[in-house]
Every structure is written in C-alpha cells, then in structure tokens.
Design a protein that fits this description.
This protein is an alpha/beta fold. The chain has 9 helices and 14 strands. The chain starts with a strand and ends in a 13-residue tail after the last strand.
Length: about 325
C-alpha cells in the first residue's frame, strides 16, 4: 500500500493538521516518489484544490506521494529546498509567489528532477509541464463584460491580488490591455484585495470615503469581491451598480442564483484543474505523451448560466 502524507498548514487559523494514509512504508507496488508543494490552504479555492488532489492520488498506488501546504511564501521556499535535496522523481509546484519561487523551481528542473507547475506560473519556461487556468483571459473577460454593462462609460475601482506576483500581473495586464479599447472608462483607484473577504472588505472600506462616485468594482477574486460588497452595503453606497469577481466560490454563485442586483459575474476557472495536473504527472512518469502546456479557459458565469456550474463551485 502506498504512503500518502499530507501536511496542511493553515495560516489563517494558525493550526497544523497532519493527515496520513497507509502504513507509513512504501511497498513493492511503489515505483515513483512525487512531492506536491502547495501554498497555504487558507481560502476556499486552495482548500478545494487540496481536496481534489487527495482524492485523485488515491487512484495511483504505484506512487509514493508527499503533499505539503506551506504556511507562507518563505515556508514554501524552504520546503522546496528540502524537496530539492531529497530523492523525488517529480515535484509538482503551485507557487504562492511565482516570482519568489522561480529560482528554486529552475534549480530543481536543471538538476534533472521533473517539475509540473500548477495554476500559478513562475517567471520562467524551465519546467517539464504547466497546467493552469487562463488568468490573462480572466482579465480580458472582466474588461469586456464590465465595459458592456457600463455602455463604455464609467468609473471603476480595481482590486488586485497580491500586487506584482505572476497571477496578479496576468489578470491585470489582460484587463488593462482590453479596457484600453474603451476610452470612456476610467480606473480611478487600485487596491489589493488579495484572495479573501477580509482584504476585500478592508480595501473597499478605505477606498469609499475618497471616491464619492464609483460605477463598478472589478476584483481579481470572488472572495475579495464579496468582502467589497459588505463594505459597499455598510456604507449604503447606491452609486456602485456592478461588482465582478474571479474564481467561482459558492458564496459568489449563490449571489448570482439569487439575482443579486450588484454582484453580476464571476470570471471563473475551477480548482478541478488539480485533477488535470495529477494526470499529466502520471503521463510523464509513465513515459507517455503529454501536453507540455495546458491552459484551461476562463468562463464568464452570470445569473443566466450559474446553474450549469454550481457543481464546480468551491
């Protein structure tokens, strides 16, 4: 029976939980050793992704799996250094901060260990395979959608996600390059909504007093958008007509199902991409043909089509 070790460090709750399956020793079935390095499971997307990973790897008893959620970016860097010095056949990396983790990811790859980058890119093409949602398309879709809602005219507050990391830059550049085609729309303020409601609430609470008229809020994350909505509702701001997010959280989809008058869309891609990532890992290990780059499209989810995607919400 294979060994599966999952160390889940949840920074939001400051708790450590160790989950082990198996007898602690790889038996004769085990042919490969694979490590999976993940950022903190401190939001709904990451938690659901971890769930998908743990379910999918059960299908592959020939692999000795080590799955680790870091507590923060530096912890993930330290863990990857440990993995680099161990004897793994392949390391899958979902980088919390792709820029910070680019050098160690390159070192691992250059040393001959196969690497699969999941979801968030690094600043390099030195990897064995990449499986990711189309983050740039999230930004493009958000720009086209909000421009249509506003009729090409209006003022936007823009909530980013850990400003400057690769996932943030892809979404931001996709949005900015597209919204430039609508000169009647002005981005009047930017802030960091991160990937959670608390940051979205704080960012929007700080924005509102200095901007008496805002037509729309575009957020890089559904949870940040939901936090921004709380701030808007608390301030009784009726000028803000539209809020959009990205991701596909259950709370956001429930708002869409209820025909919320303000939260109108989520530029969604789902943590189920983890399943695609594990399957690519297995193709590589088995010496099968695989697609080096897999980019999963972004979907615009609104009240009109949300029922089709509720099963994918997290």
């Amino acid at each position: 029976m294979k060994k599966i070790i999952a160390i889940i460090l949840v920074s939001m709750l400051m708790l450590t939980l160790v989950v082990a399956c198996g007898n602690g020793n790889a038996d004769d079935e085990t042919q490969f050793r694979v490590a999976i390095s993940l950022p903190p499971a401190n939001n709904a997307w990451q938690a659901k992704l971890l769930e998908h990973i743990m379910e999918e790897i059960e299908n592959y008893p020939e692999v000795d799996w080590t799955v680790v959620n870091a507590v923060d970016d530096n912890d993930q860097l330290n863990q990857l250094n440990l993995f680099h010095n161990d004897d793994f056949d392949l390391i899958m990396i979902l980088p919390g901060n792709g820029t910070l983790l680019t050098p160690i990811s390159e070192e691992i790859y250059d040393s001959g260990t196969m690497t699969v980058i999941l979801d968030r890119p690094i600043d390099s093409d030195r990897f064995t395979a990449l499986v990711a949602g189309d983050n740039r398309e999230c930004g493009v879709n958000a720009a086209n959608f909000i421009a249509e809602q506003l009729g090409g005219q209006g003022y936007i507050a823009y909530l980013r996600s850990y400003v400057g990391i690769p996932i943030d830059m892809l979404r931001y550049e996709g949005f900015m390059d597209t919204i430039a085609a609508f000169p009647g729309i002005e981005i009047i303020v930017e802030a960091d909504g991160q990937f959670n409601r608390e940051a979205g609430l704080e960012a929007m609470t700080n924005i509102l007093p200095g901007h008496p008229h805002i037509d729309a809020v575009v957020a890089h994350d559904d949870e940040a958008a939901l936090g921004a909505l709380v701030a808007i509702e608390n301030a009784n701001r009726t000028d803000i007509r539209y809020v959009t997010g990205m991701g596909g959280t259950l709370g956001a989809y429930e708002r869409l199902q209820a025909n919320d008058p303000v939260f109108v869309a989520s530029m969604s891609y789902f943590p189920r991409q983890a399943i695609d990532g594990i399957r690519v890992v297995m193709q590589i290990l088995r010496g099968e043909d695989f697609q080096r780059t897999t980019i999963i499209p972004s979907i615009i989810v609104t009240s009109e089509n949300v029922d089709q995607f509720m099963d994918y919400a997290y």
